[in-house]
Amino acid sequence: MNYDYIKMGYNTTFPPITVMKPFEDDLDANPSAVDEHLSMDEVFLRKLKKAIEENIETRDFGVDELGREIGMSRSQIHRKLQALTGKSASRYIRTYKLEKARELLRKNVGTVSEISYKLGFSSPAYFGQVYVEEFGTPPSEEKKNHDPTLASSMDKDSTFESSQRKLVAIMFTDIVGYTALMGSNEQKALELLRKNRQIQKPLIEGLNGIWLKELGDGVLAQFDSASGAVICAQKIQRAAQRDFDAKIRIGIHLGDVTIENDDVFGDGVNIASRLQGIADPGGIYLSESIQRAVRSRNEFNLLKLGEVQLKNVDYLVTTYCLQGDGLPVPNAARIQQLRASRIVETGVPLANVNDTLIKEVFDQLAKVKPSIGKFLYYDEEDEDEEPDVRELADLLIRNYPWVIGVELRRLFSGSLRVLDQNRLTQIFTTIHRSLQFLSFVLIIELYERITEGKINLQKDFGLELKARFLELSFEDFIWIIKEIGKTLDQAGVERFIPEMKDHLDDEFYKTLEFTIPKKNALGEYQLDKTEEDVSNQCIDYQDKLTIILSKTAFITKYKLVTIKEIKVLKARHKDPLFQHWMDILNSADSDFRSKQEIFDSFSDSNAVLLMKSLKRPTDYLNLSPLIIDTRGEVIDSREKFSLKKDIFICEGFANNNIRYAGTEVTEESDLRSLSNYHELVEDFREIIQMSNNRKK
C-alpha cells in the first residue's frame, strides 16, 4: 500500500491491479514449436516482451537486467532492436510499459499513481511526464476520456481521486537571504514580504495563473500553460530588478499533481521547489518537461545545465536555466557543481555512511586550497543552509590525483552504501592506492636526489629498499613512506613537496600501525569475517582512511599530468619555444581535460608528471614508469589488439616484466606490446639500482 494516499485522505480500497500476460507460457518450454511459425526476429521480440512482462513491476529493471534474462549482451540487444524497431533498448522497455499503462488506464482498474508504481515507474510525476511525451495527453485525461461515468461525475463528486489530478506547471519562488534578514531586521523583512506579494500576485493572476499560497518568503503558484509560467517568471525577475531590494530565485516544473482543497501535492511541487533551491540568485531554473513544452517558442533562450540530483527526488532531473533580460548565467564551474550528482549511481543520493569522511577531508582540503570555496554554491546568508555533501564529494574526486580520485568515486557510489564486504574491499583499495601514490612520489624524489649527487645511500638501506620496491605490498608502502621521508629529512635536501615534512609526522605514522588482508591469486582481498565483523571493520578502516586523506590533502596542490607531445617552435633570430600538449589527470571521470601551453623550456614528454604548477614545465617529478598513460598508444599491429587504454600503476616487477594494474580497468594487464615497453623496463631497472647511481 502507498501510505501517501492515507496521509492525503484517499480511498485506498481500489481492486488490485492485474497485469495481463498475453504471451504464451510455453514459449521457452517448446521453442521448436514456435520456430515453425515465427521468424528468428519475431522469436527475439517475443522473448524480450516476455522478459519485460515478468519483471514489469521491478523498478530497476533495465537493459542489463533484460540482457541477463534472455542471455544477450547490452550491445547485441541494442543493435538488434535498432534494426527491427528503430528504438534503443531502454526506450523499448519504457514504451512497452507505457502501452501497458494506457491499457490499464482505459480499463480504469486503478488510480494513476497505483498504475505508475505497479508498472515500475519511479514516481507518478515521472510517469506523467513520459506518458505525455509518448501519447500527448496526461494519464488522468486518458482515464477520463475512456470512462463516460467518470467524465459525467467530475462535477458531482469533487472528492473522487481522478478529478483531483492534473498536469500543470508549478512555479516556486523564494527571496534570497530572507531568513538572515528576518533575524537582523524584522520590520524590513516584513516590508520585503509585502512588496514581494505586490509584485508577484498581479503578475501570476494576469497570466491566468493561480496564487496557491505563501510559504514563509516563498510563493507557490500553478499555471495551466508552461509558457504562461515562464513568461510570468520573466516578468517577476524584471520587476524585482527594478523595484525590489533583494534577489528572487525561481524554479518551474511541469508535472502531474494532486489538487485538493485549493492546495497541490506531489512530486511536481517538490521538483519545482528543489529547482528554485539550486537556482542562481535572480535566476530561473526549469525542468526538461517545461523545456519540451516551450522549445518551439523563440523568445525563450534556454541553457541546458545537464542532469542534476535534486534533494528527495530519486531520479536525475535534466535542468535548464533561462537566459537574457539580465538573468544570471552559471559559469562552467557552477554547471559542473550541479552535475556533481553524477558520481552517484542510479540516481540515489549519497548515503550518510560517507558524510563524515567527505566533510572532514574537505575541511582539510579547504585549508590547503582556500580558493576551493568559490566552487561551492549555497546561500551563505541562510544560517540553516549548508553545502550539499555531493558537491563536496565531487570536489574531492576532482582535486585528488586520478589514481586516488577514481577510488573515491567508487567508494562514494550508490552501489556501496551498505557496510558489507564490497564496501570494505573498496575502503582497503582506496587506502592502498593513497599510500601507493605517496610511496611512488617519494621513490622518484629519492632517485632524483641520488642522481644529482645530493644523497648517498647506505648499502643495507639500498638492498632493503630494492627488495621492498620489487614487491610493493601494503606493508612495503608504509616502510617506504616512513624510511625515505627520514632519509630525505636527514640529508637536509629541499623537498619537492615540502608539506610532507610537516604533515607526515609521528601522528601520521602511528595511524599507519595497522594491516589490511593479503590478496589472493585473483587479486581479491581474503575476507573471512561475519557480517557484524565486516560492518565494524568498515567503520574502523573508514576512520583510518579519513585520517590518511586528511593528513595528505596537501597533495591536491600539485597537478598530475600526462605530457603527450612537445613541439619545438623556432623563429629566425629568436630563442626556441616549446609547445606542450598535456592532459590533466584530475577529474571525476576518465574524460580528462586537455591543455596546450607554450614555454621557453621543456619537460619530459610521453610521461606522467607531478607538477608544482602548469606554468613551470621544469619543476616536476617524472613518475613514469611507476604510473603510465597508454591512451595515446596507436593500435597498429595484431599484438596490440588486446591492449587496454588507461592510466596504469605499477604493482611489482618480476622476470624482467613490470606488472601493471589499470585505474579504470581495475585488473592487472599485460602491457608488453606497448611501443615503449622496453624503455619503461630499463627505467625501472635504473630506479631499483638507485644506490649505484651518481651524478656524472
Number of strands: 17
Mean pLDDT: 80
CATH fold assignment of the domain at 163-346: Alpha-Beta Plaits
Backbone structural class: alpha+beta
> What shape does the CA trace take?
globular
Uncertain spans: 1-37, 150-163, 341-351, 377-384
CATH architecture of the domain at 163-346: 2-Layer Sandwich
Largest sheet: 8 strands, mixed
Q: What attributes characterize this protein structure?
A:
17 strands; 26 helices; globular; alpha+beta; five-stranded antiparallel β-sheet
What is the secondary structure topology, with strand pairs?
Blueprint: H1 3-8, H2 31-35, H3 40-54, H4 63-70, H5 74-85, H6 89-107, H7 112-118, H8 124-135, H9 139-145, H10 148-152, E1 165-175, H11 178-184, H12 186-206, E2 210-215, E3 218-223, H13 226-243, E4 248-260, E5 263-265, H14 267-278, E6 284-287, H15 288-294, E7 301-309, E8 316-323, H16 332-338, H17 355-368, H18 389-399, H19 402-411, H20 421-451, H21 459-471, H22 474-491, H23 499-503, H24 506-511, H25 531-551, E9 559-569, E10 577-584, E11 593-599, E12 607-611, E13 620-622, E14 627-629, E15 647-654, E16 657-662, E17 668-669, H26 677-688
Parallel strand pairs: 4-6
Antiparallel strand pairs: 1-3, 1-4, 2-3, 4-5, 6-8, 7-8, 9-10, 9-12, 10-11, 12-13, 14-15, 15-16, 16-17
Task: Describe this protein's structure.
The protein is α+β, with helices and mostly antiparallel strands. Among the domains are: 3-159, Orthogonal Bundle (Arc Repressor Mutant, subunit A), CATH 1.10.10.60; 163-346, Nucleotide cyclase, GGDEF domain (Alpha-Beta Plaits), CATH 3.30.70; 557-692, no CATH class. 44% of the residues lie in helices and 16% in strands. The strands form 3 sheets. Strands 1, 2, 3, 4, 5, 6, 7 and 8 form an 8-stranded mixed β-sheet that branches. Strands 11-10-9-12-13 form a 5-stranded antiparallel β-sheet. It has a 4-stranded antiparallel β-sheet with strand order 14-15-16-17. Strand 10 (577-584) and strand 11 (593-599) form a beta hairpin. Helix 12 packs antiparallel against helix 13 (226-243) and helix 19 (402-411) runs antiparallel to helix 20. It starts with a helix and ends in an 8-residue tail after the last helix. 35% of the residues are buried.
